[in-house]
Amino acid sequence: VQLQASGGGLVQAGGSLRLSCAASGRAYRSYAVGWFRQAPGKEREFVAAISRLGATYYIDSVKGRFTISRDNAKNTVYLQMNSLKPEDTAVYYCAADRSIITSQLTRPYGYDYWGQGTLVTVSS
Prior knowledge:
This protein is an all-beta fold. The protein has no helices and eleven strands. The protein has strands spanning 3-6, 9-12, 17-23, 32-38, 45-50, 56-58, 66-71, 76-81, 90-97, 113-114, 118-123. A hairpin with a 6-residue loop joins strand 4 (32-38) and strand 5.
């Protein structure tokens, strides 16, 4: 599967963005999808994930602000980001895997397929 991440941009603190992760192929519904981010000089960090069955997982710092969802008819997973903070600034990557287990959803190494990244910049 090939992933295309989009939706990043420059936004003021408190604003919102919606990231999209579009996939090729008809079996996207069979994949778990995760969003990760990497700020300059920092390691890649788990943000959110959605399982094949629609269960969702979030890092504590985004709970209540970010929502991950999927539209299988459109082969797309979304990350709605509200109340953005300057510390959310990073390149955001989506990743997908068909056989990942729940305990690995928050781990980058659990995913075989990655999108190219989209830059989110939150100004203070």
